[in-house]
Amino acid sequence: MHMKKGILYFLLLLLILFLPAKTVDLIVDKEEINEKEEKEIEWVENPSKDSTKILETPKVIKPLNTSTSRDSNWWEYPKDIYPTKRDGNDLLVLVNKQYKLPSTYAPSDLVKSSNSGIRRGENYHLRNIIIPDLTRMVIDSKAEGIDLSIVSGYRSYQTQVNTYNYWLSKNDNNVALVDTFSARAGHSQHQLGTAIDFSSNEIGDRLGDEFENTKASKWLIANAYKYGFVISFPKGYESITGYKFESWHYRYIGIQYAREVSNRGLILELYLRENNP
Q1: Residue 45: what pLDDT?
Q2: Residue 26 falls inside a structural domain
């Protein structure tokens, strides 16, 4: 009887000594697994000096599989790159991963976007041709209780060089990843001076995926075309546009053309391809 009690006490002692160590091991293992499954990339403000300082999302989860197309890697640039078929001043010029603006192109009518009354507009420039319609959009959205701000406008060719290289440096030179969300120099709509990245005081004027769920984003989806603006990179069309969904990025093409895009149920990329044969 005494021997059985002795064995029992001995086993209990071993359990008390052994259990904490194993519990710690399990916790550490679990943390390591979670770290591998969700590698987070910190997005911070671009440090390069320019009149179009860029704000980005605080965090983005690195995709395990960035492809939405079985036939191709939609983020890749084609082998053959061509100059744009229309002049950069043309509202319907097609700028994408195949058609590139010259490094010398810059709009001749750049003005402060604050001329439209949009919040934070003093920090950015846009083409003057946008200002009247953007002014109306800002006034009308305010009247409906919607706040809009601008967090990026015109970017020069050199600024886009710096921006793209910045994202490479922040993401271990992962070209495939960076190409899903940042354009290489000459391939950015921002060089046109007719593209705007919107935000709102709803999210502290940050730029990123959280904008999709704001009242401002929903208002733009329903109304932007009335003022000549069309979303450039809509959800579900990554294999066509070459970029991930950007709820904040709109391009001005004029009211007549924007209404046609809306009425025909097209996305901007396909409409511009039709008009740049």
Answers
A1: 36
A2: no
